[in-house]
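Example 3.2
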Amino acid sequence: MSQRRQEQLNELIQQELSQIILREVEMPEDSLSTITNVEVDKDYLTAKVFLSVFPFKYSQRVLGKLRKKAGYLQFLLNRKLGMRLVPKIFFELDQTEEKASEIEDLLNKISHSPS
């Protein structure tokens, strides 16, 4: 299938799965979880779902909850999309924010160090 179709499927899964998680998964009260990206493989059999969790200290707990409920979330997604084959979802943490923060800290240390 085409690259455009793959991108559309990425966006559709991101939107629908976000709504399903919002309704079906109880998250830590003072945390914010967002699906930042979905990458469906070229064979359309699997999809990596990338999450950003704030504050980061809750990331492992949120990821664990989602992985534990992955089968149920997959079932709801399959029903919502109504496609013959819906890619199997796998949850991963989006490390972008954490890495950006580390780089910013390093740059701050370099700029404040004596010459």
